[in-house]
Amino acid sequence: MTRRASLRARARILLACLLLLPGLGALALAQAPPAPPPSSGADPAATPPGDESVIGGEAGPDTGDIDEILEGEEEVLSGSGGFTYDPGNRRDPFKSLLIGPERPDRGPRPEGIPGLLIDEIQLLGIWRTPRGYVAQVRASNKSYLLREGDQVFDGDVVAIQKNEVVFKQQVQDPTALKPYREVVKNLPAR
Asked: Fewer CB within 10 Å, N side or C side of the chain?
């Protein structure tokens, strides 16, 4: 390589450095945190927050910012921040699915139709009367006559049709979208 080519290479490197330095300086200034605005009532000789101050002859950090942060956390924990959750008719997503429902125990089952469980009911027959259909069912070795609107222990009789009875059963499952489900009991085939 000749001396002339070597000088040209050095000149190119020097030119590239001169062109890149202003860009790097601007990038460094853009990444620096902004200076805090001066407060109008503050003493200009006072030290800015974050600097060490002398307390009782010993150097220690400024605790003003820490107190403000702790006050903010106390406000959040006390619930006075104004944030609430209204689940409407939906399940509260913040309640555990593993814990049982908060509904009170319904107590012992009463005698007769109000004490029947929908899962225990076996449909035996359906009759047409002047007031509508009546369903004959069996549960715990006893026979009962059900009409539309009758309430059983875990639901209601919604409809009685020619070949089926429709129940609305209350569901105790917190993951269910609706608090009930429809159960249809059909007449057995003969």
From this structure: C
Task: List CB contacts of 49: < 8 A, sequence separation 6 or more.
Answer: 36, 62, 64, 65
Half-sphere exposure of 74 (CA within 13 A, CB side): 6
Mean pLDDT to the nearest integer, 114-127: 92
Tokens describing residue 188: 């057995």
CATH topology of domain 113-186: SH3 type barrels. (2.30.30)
What is the C-alpha to C-alpha distance for residues 60 and 53, in angstroms, rounded to an integer? 6
Closest CA to 175 of 118, 106, 90, 102: 90
Tens digit of each residue's pLDDT (9 = 90 or more) over 40-95: 554 545 555 555 545 555 555 666 677 777 776 776 676 665 666 666 777 777 77
**Neighbour count for residue 116 (Cβ, 10 Å):** 25
Which backbone phi and psi does 40 adopt, to 5 degrees?
-75, -30
Neighbours of 15 (CB within 10 A): 10
